[in-house]
Design a protein that fits this description.
Layout lengths: L2 H15 L10 H16 L11 H5 L2 H20 L15 E7 L2 E7 L3 H13 L10 E2 L6 E2 L15 H30 L3 E6 L3 E8 L9 H11 L13
Bound molecules: zinc ion.
């Protein structure tokens, strides 16, 4: 992909990803970073002059960004899945002014608004109209469900990720799942060696459960029973308590 097309795609991705950003949770530095990205997506320039009351800065308040987020979020499905000529995504525009100026090569018109959602929607249209870009290019990240356009072609039927961070999270999760099933398999083997008690031994955490005392006639717990005990001992997925030492 040529450099200019990559940057067009990245700018489009800034707008598609916008609804995922928790604006109220951003600290001052992250908020400035978001404004930099938005400015770049809208105007193609990384030279945002901070602290000046430009139209952009007057419009890009947290309230303005949140309205743009809601507008995009509500229409993403139609952009991604709407059937051609049905289900068109719609975006309400604020009152705009049209400026037509003469240039050396002819006349050029430009719409002007001081409403951030209108700026964002208009630019979203412009970037989506990139020649060659199709609905099927709008993919969904397997980790956080962000809608994005990949910068290079992806293998079909493989999970896609919107960022390196999301890809790393997914591979860390897969690693955890694999090592958990290895731990479980080891626990079953060790429990099977025990005599008298049904003991569930976790390879890293030691004995984590004693089942009832077995009489000689009682059978050793089945593999499924041991696995069930082991699973009930583990913290529920996604509820891992945060470490307080950091
Ligand atoms: Zn993602």
């Amino acid at each position: 992909m040529p450099e200019s097309k990559i940057s067009t795609t990245q700018r489009l991705n800034v707008l598609l990803r916008l609804p995922k950003i928790a604006v109220d949770e951003l600290d001052a530095a992250d908020w400035e970073k978001l404004l930099d990205e938005l400015y770049w997506a809208l105007f193609g320039s990384k030279q945002r002059v901070k602290g000046v009351d430009t139209t952009f800065h007057l419009a890009a308040t947290k309230e303005g960004v949140k309205r743009a987020q809601a507008g995009i979020e509500s229409q993403l499905y139609k952009l991604q899945k709407g059937k051609p000529d049905e289900l068109a995504a719609s975006f309400p525009l604020n009152i705009q002014a049209l400026y037509i100026s003469a240039s050396k090569t002819g006349f050029v018109g430009k719409y002007f608004t001081n409403d951030l959602p209108s700026m964002v929607y208009e630019q979203l249209r412009f970037l989506l109209e990139t020649p060659g870009l199709k609905q099927s290019d709008l993919l969904t990240c397997a980790t956080d469900q962000t809608v994005f356009v990949p910068l290079r072609k992806r293998a079909k039927n493989k999970p896609v990720f919107c960022s390196q961070k999301c890809a790393s999270l997914a591979s860390a999760r897969a690693f955890r799942d694999r090592s958990r099933s290895r731990s479980e398999a080891a626990a079953v083997m060790m429990a099977a060696d025990e005599k008298g008690f049904g003991v569930v031994v976790h390879p890293e955490r030691g004995v984590i459960a004693l089942t009832k005392r077995l009489t000689p006639k009682q059978p050793t717990p089945t593999r499924d029973e041991i696995l069930q005990t082991l699973r009930s001992e583990q913290p529920a997925k996604g509820k891992k308590p945060k470490s307080r030492s950091s």
